[in-house]
C-alpha cells in the first residue's frame, strides 16, 4: 500500500515552479508508467519496486532512488499482535492477506519470505488501497504496507522482525527529454516530500537512526 509522498511532492513543485502546469497520472503498472515516460507522454515516473529488483527496462530511462523502506504489517488495533513493537512473519502464518495489485515481483518476494519463515501464505484478497484498509479494519485480513503509510484510525502498523521485505521508491525520467533538465530538482523535491512524511511516524524515524541502510541514502 502506498506512502503519502505525492502530495508533498506536488506542493513543492508547484511552489518552486508556479508557472508550470503540473498534472498526475496513476497506474498500478510500473511498466506502463515507464512506457509513458519513454514515449514522451509523461515527464517522470514515481514507482516502487521490491527489494533489489530492477525497475522496468527497455525504455531508456534513468532511475534514481528516493528512499528504501522496510515493509510493515497493517493490523486492526484489536489484533492479538497489535501491542507488539515488531512482529515475526512466522507469527502471521494463520492470517489471510489484503494486497494491492501490481505488475512487479512483490508477490513472489512475499511468498519467498513466507517460505523462509516456514509457511505458505493463506488466501490473499486483492483490492485497491481503500479496499485493503476496509478488509483489515473488518478483521478479515492483515495487510502489507510501507513504513510511511498514512495512519488510519483503528489500525496500526508494526515492523516485521528482521525486515524480510523491502520496498524502494524510485524516480525515473528519459535522459533525452525536456524533463531531464529539471530531474535533479524533482528528485530533491521527492526526497524532501519523503522526509516530510516521516513526521507522522516518530517510531519509524527513531528506528531509522539505528538502521541507516534504510530511508534516504
From TrEMBL:
One of its GO terms (cellular component) is protein-DNA complex. Keywords: DNA-binding, Transcription, Transcription regulation. The keyword Transcription applies. It comes from the Bacteria. This is LysR substrate binding domain-containing protein. Residues 5-178 form the LysR substrate-binding domain. SUPFAM superfamilies: Periplasmic binding protein-like II. GO terms for molecular function: DNA binding; DNA-binding transcription factor activity. Pfam families: LysR_substrate. Belongs to the LysR transcriptional regulatory family.
